[in-house]
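Notebook entry, structure prediction.
Reason for the run: the old model in the group folder had no record of what sequence produced it. Starting over properly, with the input documented here first.
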Amino acid sequence: MMPRTQALKPEQVPADSKPTLDTFTRMLGFTPNMLATFAQSPIAFNAWATFRSSLNKVLDVKTREIISLAVSEVNGCNYCLAVHSYAASMAKLPADEIILARKGHAIDPKKDAAVQFARKIIETRGQVGESDLETVRQAGYTDANIMEIVALVAMYSLTNFFNNVFDPEKDYPAVPLAGSI
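New structure, fully documented this time:
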C-alpha cells in the first residue's frame, strides 16, 4: 500500500520547517519519513517539535518510552511502535520490557503506575477516577508529574494520529502489528 502522502525531498521542505527538520536529521543521523511528511505544515510541525522538546525534560527517558509504547499500542500506530521500540532498546530497555510496555505495564512499580495511568487516560479519554489519581500519587508522582504524563499522552497521541492518517513509509525496524503481541 502506498503512503497517503509523500515525504518531502530536501528541496521541497518549506523554509520555516527546514531548521527543525535539519536538527532532527543531525540528531538521528537520517531524516525519518514521518518527519519529512510532517514538515509540510511548518506551523503544526514546529509546534509539535517545541512540545516534544519541552517534554523531553520530564520524567526519565525509560518512563517516557514506556508511556509512548503503551499509548501507541492503544492508538494502533505501527509507525510509532516501531520508532519507540527502537528508541526504548537504545535506552537499554530489554525486549521483554518493551512488550510489557506495549501491554501497559512495567517491571518497576513506579514506572508501572505511570504507564497504567497513561493507558487509562487513553482508554477513558481522560475520564479517570479518583482512585486512578490516588494510585499514581501513591507511586510517588506529584500533581505536576501527573500533568506531564497527561501532556506526554497528548503528544504521543498527536504523532499516532498523524501517522495513522498519513501512513508514512516505514523506515524503522518492523515490530509485530499492534494487537498481535
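Summary: The two ends are 23 Å apart (CA to CA).
The old model has been moved to the deprecated folder.
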